[in-house]
Here is the input.
Amino acid sequence: MTEVDDSRSPAPPLTERQRARRRRILHVTARLACRGGFEAVQMREVAESSQVALGTLYRYFPSKVHLLVATMQDQLEQLHGTLRRSPPTGERAADRVARTLMRAFEALQREPRLAEAMARALTFADRSVSAEVDQVSRRTTAIILDAVGGLENPTPGQLSAVRVIEHTWHSTLIAWLSGRASIAQVGVDIETVCRLIEVTGAGESDAAGAGKRERAHGSGPVASG
Here is the structure.
């Protein structure tokens, strides 16, 4: 069996003109998806509405799946900016993460056809779309870590918890879009999985974390009898 070499040279940085063209393409894609979902996003119409040649569009995005996954990354980037300007509140890290993810869910809920189109694209994505899917995952991870706060160097266990939270958020989105889960059920599931943050010790103050470690090892202050 011949092994497939999927290593790719990093793409050169885009010029300002190319970035503007890319933003225009993603804006048109989101608009079409909002109107008619996955089926409404047709590459030729995207090219015409974006005022780019069809061949140029395919150089940026080899398929509709590539295009819609990139659109999701763009939507998450915009959401991340909003969250940074107005971060979630709450004393517990798990609560802040849950509120953050529910705000993301509510944003998608306002445009269900767009949400469905992007979710379908993620489901259909194969290895050829790995770079775009990785961008979505990295942005989601950054959103969660920002909500936790103070995790400049997360441990492997904390990153594993974040991945499980990401998977659950995506699964609940699919369940809601397919009518298999209510908004209330989504909220409960998100709140439940976000407790994994507390299990890993993320979001604790340094003093609280140190106190727990001292008690765990029996090295804390001992009251005299």
